[in-house]
Write a structure and sequence with these properties.
There is one protein chain. The protein is of the alpha+beta class and about 150 residues long. The protein has two domains: about 60 residues, Orthogonal Bundle (Arc Repressor Mutant, subunit A); about 80 residues, Glutaredoxin (3-Layer(aba) Sandwich), CATH 3.40.30. The protein has seven helices and five strands. A hairpin with a 2-residue loop joins strand 4 and strand 5. Helix 2 packs antiparallel against helix 3. Bound molecules: FE2/S2 (inorganic) cluster. FE2/S2 (inorganic) cluster binds next to helix 5.
Amino acid sequence: MKKARQDIDSILEKYPRHAHHLISLLQDVQEAYGYISPEHLTLVCDHVGAPLTQAWAIISFYKSFSLEPRGEHEIKVCLGTTCHLKGGDRLARMCERDLEVKRGQTTRDQRFSLDTVKCVGACALAPVVMVDDGYLGKANIHSLKERLKKL
Ligand code: FES
């Protein structure tokens, strides 16, 4: 815990104590820890002099922020209109069943986080599943299972 505290201090020290830096600081904490813990949220707000409600509003607005630890691998099943029509929901249900995790949650072993998203801009490849930073286009149950096995 002491090391974690030192790490957060080094992040805080990079920014002047002003509320203009709230989003940048939250982004750095998210990047460093994979999520923003209640303790870190308080430290960030204290540092820049912003109310917790302001930070809370930012975190709620941007999907890139998480208040819970994220899995080692991020799986995002596209459920935009085109992907939904081409079976995206079936892929999401397969992930829930095989990984034993609900949408928006992380597996108990912290290996996978499962989310759904609305159109990732690759409709020609529908249905699309993002696995970490990569796209699995024209995905089906078989190709998705194979991709997950490799992880
Ligand atoms: S709807 Fe899935 S990429 Fe556009």
